[in-house]
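Posting this for the archive.
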Amino acid sequence: TMSPENLSILIGQWFADCKHAIERSRGLINKFLGDGFLAYWPTARSDQSEGVVQAIEGLRAIQGRKEPRFRLVVHRGIVSVGHAGSSMGEENMLGREVHLVFRMERLAGKLRLPCLASETAQRHLESQVALEPVGQYELSGFDAKFRFFTLAGYRPGTGAS
């Protein structure tokens, strides 16, 4: 229902606002992925949890605008970061945890949740962010079930799809 020009403006502003929320919280955007992005907080930064919490708050505020609707996935894990294989000079993130994040994003869509957090993220952020369990689920390419959480107050069917 939106003209291409208005859609371009909406998405451009959304990307800019999300980038600002991530960078203001001392995070880095690793890659823009067409309709989304992958952000991370380097472990060398001592205020990592505080920054992640600040980013979650900023992104929740952006989600509150209703347009464009988007999902937020929060996970904590160790990845390999390097320039190998990159023709654009950007850093590549590799490892099991990266695959887990992308599978989590798909699960969040199936569950119709605007925010999904892994158990490792929940354990790390539980004293700072109110999270509630949404259940255990298998993810494609993984042999185990994982426990997941959503931000308190989010209910299936009420957020982004």
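The chain has a mean pLDDT of 85. The longest strand covers residues 131-138.
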